[in-house]
Amino acid sequence: MDERNELILLYDYYGELLSDSQRKYFEDYYFNNLSLGEISEELDISRNAVHKQLKSAINKLYFYEDKLKIISKNNLLLKKIDKLDSKIKQELIDIIES
Question: Low-confidence residues of the chain, pLDDT below 50?
Answer without folding.
Answer: none
